[in-house]
Design a protein that fits this description.
With 223 residues, the chain is α/β, with parallel strands linked by helices. It contains nine helices and nine strands. The chain has two domains: 189 residues, 2-enoyl-CoA Hydratase, Chain A, domain 1 (Alpha-Beta Complex), CATH 3.90.226; 29 residues, no CATH class.
Length: 223
């Protein structure tokens, strides 16, 4: 992979965005590499959890605006397989520094988010019209509607502490390696389950969108 650094630590796959010199901007090549990585991760029975991280100074600034400007044929709608929502196995995002735009959506599409106290989040680019479809679906389900609209519409930069208050960050990390903490969390989680399918991730996602009586009835069928 040209734009990813991957390594395996037992049942945990570590996936590092490797365009720090460009703010880990998610160009089309990087999007395709992530899609291929997720497919490989899903099919490997020896792997149970993945950790997605950026560099110590930046998770991702979002779209590769230079690529969009240079090639009109490259639209802002990302590769749908970039996001790990379709996987049966959990993915933890380890976030340091800026996490903006499409990078923010990518982090939201992970199942847990571990962030350093200095991490910043938001849809901050005023010149790039993007519908942020994934955020529009996920944010109202993950937090309340008012906060979701503010995040999508305002362009405000939001601190990791504020994200924690909204329930969008699972754990704040102070004075430690955020990626190492996420991998430690993944290792702990992997010991609780014998295989990736045991997390029943897709069942949880399906049930979360149903009315309570229907969800309770459907939950009885989950194995």
């Amino acid at each position: 992979m040209e734009f990813l650094d991957t390594r395996i630590e037992g049942p945990v796959l570590s996936v590092g965005l490797a365009r720090a010199d460009r703010g880990n901007a998610l160009n089309r090549s990087l999007q395709r590499e992530l899609a291929l990585t997720w497919a490989s991760f899903e099919s490997d029975d020896n792997l149970r959890i993945a950790v997605l991280h950026g560099a110590a100074t930046v998770f991702s600034i979002g779209h590769d605006v230079a690529e969009l400007a240079a090639d009109p044929a490259v639209g802002p709608i990302p590769d749908e397989h970039l996001f790990p929502l379709h996987l049966s196995k959990p993915v933890i995002a380890a976030i340091d520094g800026p996490c903006y735009g499409l990078g923010f959506e990518l982090a939201l599409a992970c199942d847990l988010r571990v962030a350093s106290e200095g991490a910043q989040f938001g849809f901050v680019d005023p010149h790039l019209f993007v519908p942020y479809r994934v955020a529009s679906v996920l944010l109202p389900r993950m937090t309340f509607l008012g906060a979701s609209l503010d995040l999508i519409f305002s362009g405000h930069r939001v601190s990791a502490a504020e994200m924690r208050e909204l329930g969008l960050v699972s754990e704040l990390v102070a004075g430690a390696d955020t990626t190492a903490r996420a991998i430690e969390l993944a290792q702990d989680m992997s010991r609780r389950f014998s295989g990736g399918g045991d997390f029943r991730k897709q069942a949880i996602l399906r049930l979360s969108g149903m009315a309570l009586p229907t969800a309770m009835q459907m939950a009885r069928t989950v194995r």
